[in-house]
Each structure stands twice: as C-alpha cells, then as structure tokens.
Design a protein that fits this description.
The chain is of the alpha/beta class and about 300 residues long. The chain is about 30% helix and about 15% strand. The protein has two domains: about 5-145, Rhodanese-like domain (Oxidized Rhodanese, domain 1, 3-Layer(aba) Sandwich); about 170-295, Rhodanese-like domain (Oxidized Rhodanese, domain 1, 3-Layer(aba) Sandwich).
Length: about 300
C-alpha cells in the first residue's frame, strides 16, 4: 500500500504547552502528560509504551521523544501477504515484539498531526487492546514546542502479548465495501475527509503520491469534511464546541450511523477518532478500503464535482 504525504496538512505554529486536553485522558493525552512520564516510557518495564508511528522513518532518526519506539507504518502495520491491516495474530506478534502485553498502556503519536498514529489507534480499538491513547498534536507539536528529543533508538525486550485479539472485539468500528453499498440512498451519512480536489474528482490522489484509483470523484451522497478541520493550526485537536460545530453544520448528528473514508484509511482514522472517541457519536465506522478500493472497483457508482 502506498502512503499519503503531509502536503495537505495544516501549518504548524508554536504555542504554550498545556498539561491537559479538553477530552478524557484515557483516549487523548497532552504532550505535557507524556513529558511527565518519560522515565516510565523509557523503562524496559511493560506497564507503558510510547510509539512514534511515521510513514517517513527519517523523522524518527533525526529525533524523537525519549523512550519512544519507532514504528514504520508501511513495514510494520500492513499484512505481509495481502492488501489489508494486520490480522489478530500478526498484531499480537507486532505488539509483543515492541514490548507490549495486554496490560500495557500504549500511547501513540506520529507525523502529520497523527494520521498514522490514529490509524494504529483505530486498529487496536478494532482488535480490542484494552488501553491505547493518542498524544495530542503528534510529532510536529512535540518538536516545535521544545519538548526533549533524542536520536537514540529504543528497542524494548520482546514479550508475550498474553492476550487475545481474535476475534476482533469491536467489529462495529470497521466498514467494508458491502456496508458502503448498503448505505447508498439510505440514511447513513458518508463523510469523505480528502482534499476538496480529490472529492470533486479533479485529482485521483494527493499531490506527491504516485498510486491512486482509476477513477476520481466520491461515493454518491458523501459529504466532504476535510480531515484538517479537526485540528488547530498547531496540529492539536480543536475544542469540543468547535468540533461539534464542524459536523453539525454539515448535518451530521450524534445519533447518526456514520461511515468515514479517505484514500487508504489513515486520514479518516483521525475523523473516526474525533467522532467516536471525543464527541461520543453513537456509531462511526472507518471504511479503510476507502477510495483506493472504491475508485478501482468495477460497477460501483461514483459522483464527481461538488455536493
């Protein structure tokens, strides 16, 4: 699977660090929360593990939060024999090899305002790891605001995961092509989080990406809510009232059955996280096949142009 680049992300500015977010810390933690616990993350103890999830591994090599284990999204989080996310056994092996057991608090952050970190968060929620959290602002906020960094790689001891992710604990957070087909003409809002140019069909992939779908456009009836509307200019998540206004202004309500998608499922993981975990929407599914699948399928309807 190819990857999206930061070319359609928000600009970043520095601001004063804060110790809290407006959201529960069991899903979203402030950078200062992580900074206060760096000794615990740096320990070989498996109680806590900090993961930097990047699509460009050079970022990690140039400096990362002390104690953070580097995760290559392309290499580590894609199934080896199929175009899909990791299966339960593969995820258990990945977690154990990164010093993570079923009892570990996993905190993830990464490049481009947490696109790929959110994708790992969504996968772990789908499969049922009990405690996973996102660091607000991601890698850019951490480095832009003077938090400590190191170039020393972190390689925690391999452990047995000692849990089971099979069957997936939360199948309700994932949508497949059949679900999207069933949503056509129904009362299921479809949220396309891609660039407006992608949504209209003017381009079939973000700038800088070689691989895209055969056809451009969007799923019929979808609403375009660009993923970056979830974050402030510095990359941190907007306040609850601001976020609610973003979606309510598009007619997307808390009791709706919502399906979100992008090109390959990582940008839409950010929107899934906002709606499901932060705003408490009752049912939100991430269609991780997204436009790479839909735009390449034969016989499915596609719309072009604005809504």
């Amino acid at each position: 699977m190819t990857h999206d680049t930061p070319s359609d992300g928000p600009s970043h500015t520095t601001s004063e660090p804060t110790t809290e977010t407006a959201y529960p810390p069991d899903v979203l933690v402030a950078p200062e929360w992580v900074d206060d616990r760096l000794d615990g993350f740096a320990s070989d103890d498996s109680d806590r593990r900090l993961l930097e999830v990047d699509v460009n591994t050079a970022f990690y090599e140039t400096g990362h939060a002390p104690g953070a284990v580097g995760v290559d999204w392309r290499r580590d989080l894609r199934a080896a024999d199929r175009h899909d996310i990791l299966g339960p056994e593969e995820m258990e092996e990945f977690l154990g090899s990164h010093g993570i057991t079923a009892d570990t608090t996993v905190v993830v952050y990464g490049d481009n305002s947490n696109w790929f970190a959110a994708h790992l968060y969504w996968q772990l929620t789908y499969l049922g790891h009990p405690d996973v959290r996102i660091m607000d602002g991601g890698r850019e906020y951490w480095t832009d605001n003077g938090y400590p960094t190191t170039t020393e790689p972190v390689d925690p001891p391999t452990v047995a995961y000692e849990g089971t992710l099979d069957p997936p604990a939360r199948p309700d957070v994932r949508a497949y092509r059949e679900d999207v087909l069933a949503a056509l003409g129904a009362e299921t809002p479809l949220v396309d989080v891609r660039l407006p140019d992608e949504f209209r069909g003017d381009i079939t992939r973000p700038p800088g990406i070689d691989e895209g779908a055969m056809r451009g456009g969007h799923v019929p009836g979808a609403t375009n809510v660009f993923w970056a509307e979830n974050v402030r200019p510095d990359g941190r998540i907007k306040e609850p009232d601001e976020l609610r206004a973003v979606y309510e202004s598009r007619g997307i309500e808390r009791d709706d059955d919502v399906i979100v998608y992008c090109r390959i499922g990582e940008r839409s993981s950010v929107t899934w996280f906002v709606l499901e975990e932060l705003l408490g929407y009752e049912r939100v599914r991430n269609y991780d096949g997204s436009w790479t699948e839909w735009g390449n399928m034969i016989g499915v309807p596609i719309e072009v142009g604005d809504e």
